[in-house]
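Slide 14.
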Amino acid sequence: MGAKEELEQLNRIEQKLTKLITRYNQAQEALEKAQREIRHLELTVQQKEEEIKNFQNRENITKIVNTIAADATSATEIKLKINEYIREIDKCIAYLRD
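Slide 15: predicted structure.
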């Protein structure tokens, strides 16, 4: 094999290597994008689970209040007071997390 053929072969190897590096970089970028999307979706799921939990808590409060209260006015007052307590507890929990 002559010097010219060796040079051409080296050029082909270099071109293939350049393509491989480009593909590798593209794959890395796609992977990073997918990882960011996964983190975003995990946060969204966590927020939705918290919303569901809060909704279930409100529903349970309503059931408890309706069972305890004799009339609609009392039920509303009890519900408001319980919601106030829950907000205060949530603030305390958030404070403790920080």
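Speaker note: Residues 10 and 16 are 10 Å apart (CA to CA).
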